[in-house]
C-alpha cells in the first residue's frame, strides 16, 4: 500500500521587479495509493515547473487525478487551463462561491500588484468550457488519501477553502495564513478584502488537532503547540 505523502512543491516564479528576481509559491501535492492530487496550480506559465516537480517524484501531469482549487486568485488558478489541456481527465474541485470566477464566467475579483500585473495578467486564460467536477462544502470529507476535510475559510475570498488531513494532522491553509521568516501569521492584509472575516475563519481550526501547516506563501510550519499559536494569532489580530 502506497503511503500518503502531503508536501508542498516550490515554484520559483521569475519576477525581475522582486528582490532576487524570484517569487516562491507553494502548491501542495498529495499522493496516495489511488490519487495524485494537486492543490492549486501556480501562476500562468507554471505548468513546466509543475511537470519538473512531479518528475522529481517519478510522476507526470498525465498521472494527476484531481486538482483542488483553494480559491480564485490568479497565482492559484493561473496554470489550470494548460494543465487541463495536457490532461483533460483531471477532476477539478472548488467551493461554489469561487466557481464562477475560476470558470471565467465572472472576472477575478483582485488585480495583481503593478509589476505582477504587467507580467502575468495578459497571459491568463480561464478554461474555455465549464470544468469543475464538484463544489466543496464546509465540513465535507473527501475520499482522498484516507480522508481530507474541507474547511470553508472566507475572507481572503468568499469561496476560500483550507483542507485538513486527520491522519497526518496536517492543515493545508492555502492563503488563510502565511509564513514570514520563522513566523506563522494570519492572511496577508494587502490581499485580503475582508480581514475581519478572514481572522474569524481561523477560529475554525481549533476543531482540529494540527501539528503541521502548509501555507501557499511560506511553505511548511511545524509545532506541537500549533493550535495554541493559531489561537494567539486570532487574539492578536492583523499584523500592523
TrEMBL record:
Coiled coil: none annotated. Residues 24-217 form the Metallo-beta-lactamase domain. Keywords: Hydrolase. SMART domains: Lactamase_B. GO terms for molecular function: hydrolase activity. It comes from the Bacteria. Gene3D superfamilies: Ribonuclease Z/Hydroxyacylglutathione hydrolase-like. The keyword Hydrolase applies. It holds the Pfam family Lactamase_B. The keyword Hydrolase applies. PANTHER family: METALLO-BETA-LACTAMASE DOMAIN-CONTAINING, METALLO-BETA-LACTAMASE SUPERFAMILY PROTEIN. This is MBL fold metallo-hydrolase.
Amino acid at each position: 500500500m502506497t503511503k500518503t505523502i502531503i508536501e508542498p512543491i516550490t515554484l520559483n516564479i521569475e519576477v525581475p521587479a522582486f528582490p532576487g528576481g524570484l517569487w516562491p509559491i507553494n502548491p501542495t501535492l498529495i499522493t496516495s495509493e489511488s490519487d495524485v492530487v494537486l492543490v492549486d496550480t501556480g501562476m500562468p506559465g507554471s505548468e513546466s515547473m509543475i511537470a519538473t516537480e512531479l518528475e522529481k517524484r517519478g510522476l507526470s501531469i498525465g498521472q494527476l487525478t484531481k486538482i483542488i482549487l483553494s480559491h480564485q486568485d490568479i497565482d492559484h488558478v493561473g496554470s489550470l487551463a494548460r494543465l487541463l489541456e495536457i490532461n483533460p481527465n483531471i477532476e477539478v474541485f472548488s467551493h461554489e462561491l469561487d466557481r464562477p470566477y475560476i470558470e471565467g464566467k465572472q472576472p477575478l475579483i483582485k488585480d495583481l500588484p503593478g509589476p505582477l500585473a504587467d507580467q502575468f495578467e495578459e497571459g491568463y486564460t480561464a478554461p474555455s468550457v465549464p470544468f469543475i467536477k464538484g463544489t466543496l462544502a464546509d465540513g465535507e470529507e473527501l475520499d482522498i488519501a484516507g480522508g481530507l476535510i474541507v474547511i470553508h475559510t472566507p475572507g481572503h475570498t468568499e469561496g476560500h477553502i483550507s483542507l485538513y488531513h486527520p491522519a497526518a494532522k496536517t492543515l493545508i491553509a492555502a492563503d488563510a495564513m502565511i509564513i514570514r521568516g520563522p513566523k506563522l501569521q494570519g492572511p496577508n492584509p494587502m490581499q485580503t478584502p475582508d480581514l475581519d472575516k478572514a481572522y474569524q475563519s481561523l477560529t475554525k481550526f481549533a476543531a482540529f488537532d494540527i501539528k503541521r501547516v502548509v501555507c501557499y506563501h511560506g511553505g511548511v510550519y511545524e509545532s506541537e503547540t500549533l493550535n495554541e499559536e493559531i489561537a494567539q494569532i486570532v487574539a492578536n489580530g492583523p499584523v500592523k
